[in-house]
Recover the amino acids of this structure.
C-alpha cells in the first residue's frame, strides 16, 4: 500500500507556483495602476514612490524563491543554486560587457534588462544542470 | 558512488516517485541518486537506510 504522506519537496514546489502566480497577477495590476497614477501625479517625492511600487510584488517573488529553496530537498536545492550561480555569472558578464560597449558609444540601456536576463538564464540553466546528474 | 538503490526499490516493487514520497524528495533526486552521480548527505543516507531497513554500508559502496 502506498503511504499518503505529504512530500515536503512536492509541497514546496506547489506552493512556489501558487505564490509566483499571485505575485505575477499583483505585479500586472500594480504596474498598470502605477503607470496610470504617474500620468496624474506631478513631479515630487510621491511621483517617485508611485514609480517604484511595482517592485513590491517582484520582492515577493524573491521571498517565494528563497522559501522554495529552503523547503526543497538537498539535491533539488543544489541544482537550483548551481543554475542561479551560472545565470548570475552570465548576467553580470553581459552587464559588464555592455557597460564597456556603452563607454565606446553604444546606446544607453535601461538597468531593467538585467532582471529579465537573470530570470531567462536561470530558467535555461536549470535543465542543463540537472542533466549532468542523470 | 555506487549503490543498490535500484535493486532494493525493485525488490519492494516501489516506483521512483513512491520512494521519493517516502524520503520526502523530488523524483529527480531519486534519478540522480540511482545513477550514482549524486552522493546523498549523511542525514539523507540515514533516511534511506531506515526506509529500506538496511545499514548504510549495505546500500552504498564507497568505491
Amino acid at each position: 500500500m502506498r503511504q499518503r504522506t505529504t512530500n515536503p519537496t512536492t509541497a514546496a514546489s506547489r506552493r512556489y507556483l501558487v505564490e509566483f502566480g499571485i505575485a505575477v497577477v499583483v505585479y500586472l495590476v500594480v504596474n498598470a495602476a502605477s503607470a496610470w497614477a504617474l500620468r496624474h501625479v506631478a513631479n515630487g517625492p510621491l511621483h517617485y514612490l508611485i514609480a517604484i511600487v511595482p517592485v513590491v510584488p517582484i520582492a515577493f517573488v524573491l521571498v517565494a524563491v528563497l522559501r522554495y529553496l529552503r523547503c526543497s530537498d538537498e539535491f533539488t536545492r543544489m541544482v537550483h543554486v548551481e543554475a542561479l550561480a551560472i545565470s548570475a555569472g552570465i548576467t553580470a558578464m553581459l552587464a559588464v560587457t555592455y557597460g564597456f560597449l556603452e563607454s565606446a558609444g553604444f546606446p544607453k540601456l535601461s538597468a531593467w534588462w538585467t532582471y529579465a536576463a537573470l530570470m531567462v538564464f536561470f530558467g535555461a540553466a536549470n535543465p542543463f544542470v540537472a542533466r549532468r546528474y542523470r | 558512488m555506487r549503490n543498490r538503490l535500484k535493486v532494493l526499490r525493485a525488490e519492494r516493487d516501489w516506483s521512483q516517485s513512491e520512494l521519493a514520497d517516502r524520503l520526502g524528495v523530488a523524483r529527480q533526486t531519486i534519478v540522480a541518486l540511482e545513477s550514482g552521480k549524486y552522493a546523498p548527505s549523511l542525514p539523507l543516507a540515514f533516511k534511506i537506510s531506515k526506509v529500506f531497513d538496511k545499514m548504510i554500508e549495505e546500500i552504498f559502496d564507497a568505491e
User: Anything to note?
Assistant: Chain B touches chain A at residues 18, 20-26, 28-29, 31-33, 35, 37-38, 40-41, 44 (CB under 8 Å).
